[in-house]
């Protein structure tokens, strides 16, 4: 397999960690070569991979660096504007695929590879030439998991403005890109990270799509387990960037009566532009003794703080992946989420609790009722915690996901069956 993972880095978070985790898990189980962008080269070498043998780094810095510097000056990704950042990435990405073809095209045509699998970028808007060129060479192409395109829910226009997400209103124009349509047509398999991503495919291509959430778990990074002893106060934590759409403010507002009465504590792990406002919200309610802001923590420290709690209180209203939900489940925490997009698809009544998507006031009321129920009977958490950990072991370890992808690739490459 030739694994194309433009974003793949074991030392970073989010999509680069997904790219690294899946590519390295596949390479551990089959003969594979990883292609990535040169910014990941040093991290690959520190991880023990051999350049030229295990991976190839493609240098596209001469066209990428000026745009990324401009994005940094605009505060994209730190102060919102994620759709604009994704649009910039989609604009840059086709050049990367052309360089991959320039490097590996002759070897693909010579059938040195049985399957080419593009793992990242995850965003479905990034289109390149590899799929159709592999098709012309007679080599199967797997795309994904792709994910994204989650619409802003109604009632949160103020948060969309704070996130500088005006471009999300015209995001669908990428469907007019002929390269995007040709990529989907030429792909033999399309892995979709969510129901939204699947629904975003033209109907004629859904028959070759497989639903597979893009996030997974490396058990070596999650070595501790929360104690679910049914005791009070109810111990909750939030993990993530403190940005408007993650809605930590809703979590605090919903919990105020229980925090004030001593029936609940709240650890907030993460940092971001909303931290000052959240600290002011806590101070105004007089809750400084029971709400702790930990800021950014090293991964080991995150799990050390997290396992002191019983639930992950994570009411994000626009989360296309929700990897933190899986991480919480791996640690034995019970996730409490809003039933929308990624978290809503990952959590069911066996492993967690969720409230309906609605406006901010209704979500706050629903969360408050749910928290009150848990305080009345925290014993329900133990069973959900155990079920969540079991589900992670069965379905979401990177090794299990790699095994499934190799099975799919082998079947398609052998022309035995369609996915």
From TrEMBL:
<protein>
    <submittedName>
        <fullName>Glycosyltransferase family 4 protein</fullName>
    </submittedName>
</protein>
<keyword id="KW-0328">Glycosyltransferase</keyword>
<dbReference type="InterPro" id="IPR001296">
    <property type="entry name" value="Glyco_trans_1"/>
</dbReference>
<feature type="domain" description="Glycosyl transferase family 1">
    <location>
        <begin position="236"/>
        <end position="365"/>
    </location>
</feature>
<dbReference type="Pfam" id="PF00534">
    <property type="entry name" value="Glycos_transf_1"/>
</dbReference>
<keyword id="KW-0808">Transferase</keyword>
């Amino acid at each position: 397999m030739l694994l194309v993972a433009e974003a793949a880095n074991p030392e970073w978070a989010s999509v680069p960690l997904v790219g690294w985790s899946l590519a390295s898990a596949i390479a551990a189980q089959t003969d594979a070569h990883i292609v990535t962008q040169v910014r990941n080269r040093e991290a690959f070498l520190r991880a023990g991979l051999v350049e030229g043998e295990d991976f190839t780094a493609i240098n596209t810095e001469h066209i990428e660096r000026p745009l990324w510097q401009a994005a940094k000056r605009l505060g994209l990704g730190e102060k919102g504007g994620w759709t604009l950042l994704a649009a910039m990435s989609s604009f840059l990405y086709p050049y990367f695929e052309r360089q991959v073809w320039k490097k590996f095209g002759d070897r693909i045509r010579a059938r040195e590879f049985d399957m080419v699998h593009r793992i990242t970028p995850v965003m479905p808007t990034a289109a390149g030439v590899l799929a159709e060129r592999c098709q012309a060479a007679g080599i199967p192409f797997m795309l994904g998991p792709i994910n994204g395109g989650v619409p802003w829910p109604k009632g949160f226009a103020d948060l969309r403005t704070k996130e500088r997400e005006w471009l999300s209103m015209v995001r669908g124009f990428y469907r007019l890109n002929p390269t995007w349509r040709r990529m989907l047509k030429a792909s033999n398999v399309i892995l979709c990270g969510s129901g939204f991503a699947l629904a975003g495919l033209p109907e004629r291509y859904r028959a070759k799509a497989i639903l597979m959430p893009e996030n997974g778990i490396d058990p070596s990074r999650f070595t501790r387990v929360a104690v679910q002893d049914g005791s009070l106060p109810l111990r909750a934590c939030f993990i993530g960037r403190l940005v408007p759409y993650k809605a930590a403010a809703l979590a605090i507002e919903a919990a105020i009566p229980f925090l004030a009465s001593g029936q609940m504590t709240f650890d907030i792990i993460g940092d971001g532009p909303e931290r000052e406002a959240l600290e002011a919200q806590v101070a105004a309610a007089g809750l400084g003794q029971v709400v702790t802001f930990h800021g950014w923590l090293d991964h080991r420290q995150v799990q050390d703080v997290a396992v002191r709690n019983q639930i992950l209180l994570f009411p994000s209203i626009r989360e296309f992946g929700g990897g933190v939900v899986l991480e919480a489940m791996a640690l034995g925490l019970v996730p409490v989420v809003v039933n929308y997009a990624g978290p809503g698809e990952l959590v069911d009544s066996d492993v967690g609790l969720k409230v309906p998507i609605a406006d901010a006031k209704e979500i706050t009321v629903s969360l408050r009722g749910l928290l009150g129920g848990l305080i009345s009977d925290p014993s329900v958490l133990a069973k959900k915690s155990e079920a969540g950990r079991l589900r992670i072991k069965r379905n979401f370890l990177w090794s299990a996901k790699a095994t499934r992808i190799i099975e799919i690739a082998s079947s398609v490459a052998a022309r035995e069956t369609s996915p």
